[in-house]
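In response to the reviewer comment on reproducibility (Comment 2.3), we provide here a single inverse folding case reported in full, input and output, so that an independent group could reproduce the run without further information from us. The structure tokens appear first.
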């Protein structure tokens, strides 16, 4: 069985981290395969949203710790530069919305890969752990970038150092994630959200993502210029014409992602 399951349905790419007996911890094979699948998502125009989840009871327990002590394993340098950094970069640069559907524990790199997605939802019983300090590491996979921006410096600092386990409801309260669903509702509700994202004007969402990516390093003046530039591009899309036309005709819009 492959460590990544991949299926395209109704314009959504469903990517499932699939090492359930290890809580979907990343080994090299899984990390490289995920990169391939994200590339496929970027290149196939029929894909308009990506749904990233984990098989079984966990989302992802971060790095497979058995692999780090394996003398034939990739080693720390390659784990970051060839596994996690390219995954996070691909997710942030993918010109389509990526939803992380966290159905169980998300720890270490698993937590931070979830948090770099565009929309993060979780089941009530899911949890998030910056597990790094427990084994003498620092938060990677963008943790030191995204976490303070999501929940503020103080909470990010405390969670990174203490490695507390945060339940989904608290994560939602803190602004770490978008929404929590009851466990029974979670699969259907999170897939419905992916369906909604796939039906929105895909190019406008891509421009929105590009603007948000840039916002943390830009001055207000630079950001206003970028918004102007991207808004011109959005206004040239067919979906923009359809959005305006459907409003004037008092009917639901039918966006095609073009
Ligand atoms: O060199 C580097 O490491 C650089 C890369 C760093 C990136 C990172 O992600 S560092 C952080 C790595 N992750 C962790 O430290 C988390 C380790 N896991 C845990 O602390 C716990 O498993 C959890 C809190 C996530 C969940 O606890 P629990 O009690 O629900 O499950 P469990 O019983 O601990 O785990 C179930 C199985 O999954 C178990 O296998 P077994 O005994 O049934 O055969 C466990 O060993 C396995 N497992 C869970 N996490 C990992 C793992 N196996 C390998 N690596 C893991 N990370």
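Designed residues, in position order:
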């Amino acid at each position: 069985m492959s460590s990544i399951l991949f299926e395209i349905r109704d314009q959504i790419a469903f990517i499932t981290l699939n090492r359930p007996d290890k809580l979907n911890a990343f080994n090299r094979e899984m990390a490289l395969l995920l990169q391939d699948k994200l590339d496929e998502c970027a290149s196939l125009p029929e894909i308009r949203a990506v749904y990233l989840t984990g098989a079984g009871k966990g989302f992802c327990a971060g790095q497979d710790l058995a692999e780090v002590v394996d003398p034939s394993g990739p080693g720390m340098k390659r784990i970051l530069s060839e596994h996690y950094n390219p995954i996070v970069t691909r997710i942030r640069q993918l010109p389509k919305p990526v939803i992380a559907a966290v159905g169980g524990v998300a720890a270490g790199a698993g937590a931070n890969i979830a948090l770099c997605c565009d929309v993060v939802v979780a089941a009530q019983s899911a949890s998030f752990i910056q597990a790094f300090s427990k084994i003498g590491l620092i938060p990677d996979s963008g943790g030191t970038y995204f976490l303070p921006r999501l929940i503020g410096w103080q909470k990010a600092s405390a969670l990174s150092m203490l490695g507390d386990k945060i339940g989904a409801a608290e994560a939602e309260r803190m602004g770490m994630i978008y929404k929590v669903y009851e466990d029974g509702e979670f699969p259907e509700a999170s897939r419905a959200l992916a369906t909604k994202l796939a039906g929105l004007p895909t190019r406008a969402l891509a421009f929105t993502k590009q603007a948000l990516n840039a916002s943390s390093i830009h001055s207000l003046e630079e950001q206003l210029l970028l918004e102007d530039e991207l808004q011109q591009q959005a206004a040239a899309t067919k979906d923009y014409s359809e959005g305006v036309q459907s409003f004037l005709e008092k009917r639901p819009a039918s966006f095609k992602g073009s």
